[in-house]
């Protein structure tokens, strides 16, 4: 009898412990607020959007709004990648000031974006060590400093946050920055950790740097994700998307908005969700003083180095649409590259051009923000067939606004986005004549594409098949190379050009035309009237 009582007591204790360790199935309603940003790219001081005189963004106004909204209910503050690279404010200090700001704002977690790797692995590890919050990368193997997930508890509600980054990272950053790392399938990584965590938490959030379309696919294929907080595609989601039982949100770019997602949880399930984007307009908002002091301290150093006026823009120079169509800033940069290298043709990926430049005085900072990467010009000999292959690759990701979309100089072409990938380019002209498929042309690009970045295998294969091919440090060598100045960055070439010309103007000239073809007849599509900066 004594043994039976003892066994019964032990059984009851075990049951009690299991109940205490399991996630609570709340019968009452629990509220949770998720504040989120993505693709900040170091734009801590805010900037004017072309077509508006009002400054948007700014870390101190963003921080003030975060502090205000946090007071209302239990809150998580999350960042969906590409935070520490992009603007001069970030790049001059290799992302350090952004981490300082994020620490002061009290971020709960961040997933790595592809551009977090742009300074190299050693610098990324330094930034991870400085962060007072976990930086996540569940599908990245070879860098243990990146955590796979974190569990946060708010008023008894257990929330797991799993972080993933695009497995295209090795081709959308310089491949040399990710040597030794393996980028696994994000979906497989998420499935693995959902299986591990589901029984011990109430809510599972995937913090994703995959892009909006890839996030929709992830939500439809992987069960058990309650919320996806995403980035990478710079998508402005006015309202959340519901895919099955998964809520999906993105918050545009550059800290111009703060994403707000409010959910109500009952019995371990989300029963209600409301979302919005709060615009960050400093003229209408207060500033968080401690963040403002961090911004001022670094901004003064940036201004001292980069505030010098180098010329004047006679028109607005559009770089924001360089991933989807011909832009005047894309034409200007490509023209400068072609002139500098003495090439027939220039091709530059739209993703290399990150911001627009407004009409008026052009500062060094404007150029370094528009062209933030340390790329240099490489020119090589290509056949007409190889040029056409490059153009095909450039328009193969137009639907997702991929950075591989090309801005061009020295040629013009038409393409039909309704055709299958690899068969979209229609006509290509060089100096007004149809391109000779078997002819040879000198083509300049940047070293990122020449090394195979953005999936441009054609450049790397041409160089590899030539004699004396090598990549040593930052220098590409090959008998096919006709110009290669690794000691002078593209942005410095552009700066010197503007200093010489003083006044700059550029226009869209019809170098790239979208057409719709039916039974061999191609026509320009009719477009509805819309702002040229609509996304």
Q: How much helical structure, as a percent, in the residues?
A: 25-40%
Spatial order of the strands in the main sheet?
6-5-4-1-15-16
- Please give the number of β-strands: 32
Annotated CATH architecture of the largest domain:
4-Layer Sandwich
Total helical segments:
15
Structural shape: globular
Radius of gyration: 25 Å
The average pLDDT value, as a whole number, equals 91
Q: What does this 3D model show about the protein?
A:
- By secondary structure, the chain is of the alpha/beta class.
- The chain folds into two domains: 272 residues, Purple Acid Phosphatase, chain A, domain 2 (4-Layer Sandwich), CATH 3.60.21; 217 residues, 5'-Nucleotidase, C-terminal domain (5'-nucleotidase,  domain 2, Alpha-Beta Complex).
- Helix content is 29%, strand content 29%.
- Strands 6-5-4-1-15-16 form a six-stranded mixed beta sheet, with helices on one face. Strands 8-9-11-12-14-13 form a six-stranded mixed beta sheet, with helices on one face. Strands 21-18-25-20-28 form a five-stranded mixed beta sheet.
- A hairpin with a 2-residue loop joins strand 26 and strand 27.
- The C terminus is likely disordered.
Can you lay out the helices and strands and say which pair or pack?
Blueprint: H1 2-21, E1 30-37, E2 47-48, E3 55-56, H2 59-70, E4 75-79, H3 88-91, H4 96-105, E5 109-111, H5 121-130, E6 135-136, E7 140-141, E8 149-154, E9 157-165, H6 169-172, E10 182-183, H7 186-197, E11 203-209, H8 212-221, E12 227-230, E13 241-243, E14 246-250, E15 257-266, E16 269-279, H9 289-306, E17 309-313, H10 328-341, E18 345-349, E19 360-363, H11 364-370, E20 376-383, H12 384-394, E21 406-409, E22 411-415, E23 425-430, E24 433-434, E25 440-446, H13 447-450, H14 457-464, E26 470-472, E27 475-477, E28 481-489, H15 490-501, E29 503-504, E30 512-514, E31 516-518, E32 521-523
Parallel strand pairs: 1-4, 4-5, 5-6, 9-11, 11-12, 12-14, 17-29, 18-25, 22-30
Antiparallel strand pairs: 1-15, 2-3, 7-10, 8-9, 13-14, 15-16, 17-19, 18-21, 20-25, 20-28, 22-23, 23-24, 26-27, 31-32
Helix pairs in contact: 2-9, 4-9, 9-11, 10-15
């Amino acid at each position: 009898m004594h043994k039976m009582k003892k066994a019964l007591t032990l059984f009851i204790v075990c049951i009690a412990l299991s109940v205490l360790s399991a996630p609570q199935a709340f019968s009452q309603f629990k509220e949770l607020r998720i504040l989120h940003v993505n693709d900040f790219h170091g734009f801590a001081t805010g900037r004017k959007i072309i077509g508006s005189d009002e400054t948007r963004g700014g870390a101190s106004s963003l921080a003030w709004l975060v502090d205000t909204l946090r007071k209302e209910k239990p809150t998580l503050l999350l960042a969906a990648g590409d935070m520490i690279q992009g603007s001069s404010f970030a790049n001059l200090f290799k992302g350090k000031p952004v981490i300082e700001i994020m620490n002061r704002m009290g971020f709960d977690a961040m997933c790595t974006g592809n551009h977090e790797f742009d300074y190299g692995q050693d610098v990324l590890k330094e930034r991870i060590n400085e962060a007072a919050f976990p930086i996540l990368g569940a599908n990245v193997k070879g860098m243990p400093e990146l955590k796979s997930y974190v569990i946060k508890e708010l008023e008894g509600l257990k929330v797991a946050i799993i972080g993933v980054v695009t497995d295209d990272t090795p081709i959308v950053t310089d491949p040399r920055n990710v040597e030794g790392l393996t980028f696994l399938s994000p979906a497989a990584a998420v499935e693995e950790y959902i299986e591990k965590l589901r029984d011990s938490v109430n809510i599972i959030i995937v913090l994703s740097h995959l892009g909006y379309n890839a996030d929709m696919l992830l939500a439809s294929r992987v069960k058990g994700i309650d919320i996806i907080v995403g980035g990478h595609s710079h998508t402005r989601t006015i309202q959340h998307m519901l895919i099955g039982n998964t809520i999906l949100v993105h918050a545009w770019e550059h800290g111009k908005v703060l994403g707000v997602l409010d959910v109500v949880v009952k019995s371990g399930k989300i029963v209600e969700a409301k979302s919005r984007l709060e615009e960050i307009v400093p003229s209408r908002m207060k500033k968080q003083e401690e963040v403002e002091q961090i911004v001022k301290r670094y901004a003064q150093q940036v201004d001292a180095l980069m505030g010098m006026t180098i010329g004047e823009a006679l028109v607005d120079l559009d770089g924001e649409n360089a991933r989807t169509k011909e832009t005047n800033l894309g034409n200007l940069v490509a023209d400068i590259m072609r002139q500098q290298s003495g090439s027939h043709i220039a091709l530059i990926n739209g993703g290399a051009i990150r911001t627009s430049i407004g009409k008026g005085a052009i500062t060094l900072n404007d150029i370094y923000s528009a062209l933030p990467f340390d790329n240099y010009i490489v020119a090589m000999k290509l056949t007409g067939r190889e040029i056409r292959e490059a153009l095909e690759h450039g328009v193969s990701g137009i639907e997702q606004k991929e950075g591989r979309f090309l801005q061009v100089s020295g040629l013009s072409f038409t393409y039909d986005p309704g055709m299958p990938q690899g068969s979209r380019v229609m006509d290509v002209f060089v100096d007004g004549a149809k391109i000779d498929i078997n002819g040879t042309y000198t083509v300049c690009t940047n070293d990122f594409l020449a090394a195979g970045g953005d999936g441009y295998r054609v450049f790397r294969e041409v160089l590899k098949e030539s004699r004396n091919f090598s990549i040593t440090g930052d220098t590409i060598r090959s008998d096919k190379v006709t110009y290669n100045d690794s000691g002078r960055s593209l942005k410095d070439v552009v700066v010197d050009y503007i200093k010489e010309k003083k006044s700059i103007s550029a226009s869209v000239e019809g170098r790239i035309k979208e057409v719709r073809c039916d039974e061999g007849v191609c026509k320009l599509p009719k477009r509805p009237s819309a702002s040229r900066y609509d996304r």
